[in-house]
Amino acid sequence: MYGMTADQNSALHVTTVPVRWSDFDRYGHIMNANYIEVAQEARLQFAEDEFTARGHDFAVFVRHLDVDYLRPVMPDTTELLIETQVVEIGNTSFTTRQEIKDRQGRIACIVECVQVAIDMNTERPRSITEKEVKILTRADDVDQLEAGDSDK
Fold it and tell me: If DSSP codes are grouped into helix, strand and coil, which group holds residue 60?
């Protein structure tokens, strides 16, 4: 286990997700299940920006979700702001904490997600590499690893 905590990784990945008419229920606020979809879209954007853009394949699956609904998002919000932060890294898994914010910047929902790195050949969990730790923590020297062994 790498023993990294949120205090050691203050780097945030920030993205916005447009709110669709179908996200709202008959009471006029976003349905609970749609917060999970929004969080997934933001995690996929995080993976695209941090891994795919570097040419690094990183297959993971969601092991656990913990969702706290703090306030409703009303129809006057046209897009949600999602801040994603890696708060823990283990040997084969890592945890993200995502704050989903309404148009006033108020936290509406917090999603914590444990994801497990997968070897696509064996379809089994595998250890997270040194390079992946640096990407997950958005370390300043991650690009130095680009020139070296991509599996480290």
Answer: strand
pLDDT score recorded for residue 124 = 96
Q: For 77-95, how does the pLDDT look when each residue is reduced to its tens digit (9 = 90+)? A: 999 999 999 999 999 999 9
3-state secondary structure of 112: strand
Question: Which tokens sit at 147?
Answer: 């020139």
Which CATH code, of 3.10.129.10, 2.40.170.20, 3.30.70.20, 1.10.287.70, is assigned to 6-138? 3.10.129.10
**Tokens read off for 68:** 């706290």
C-alpha dihedral, 98 to 101 to 107 to 109, nearest 10° = -50
DSSP state of 114: E
pLDDT digits (tens, 9 = 90+) for 118-127: 999 999 999 9
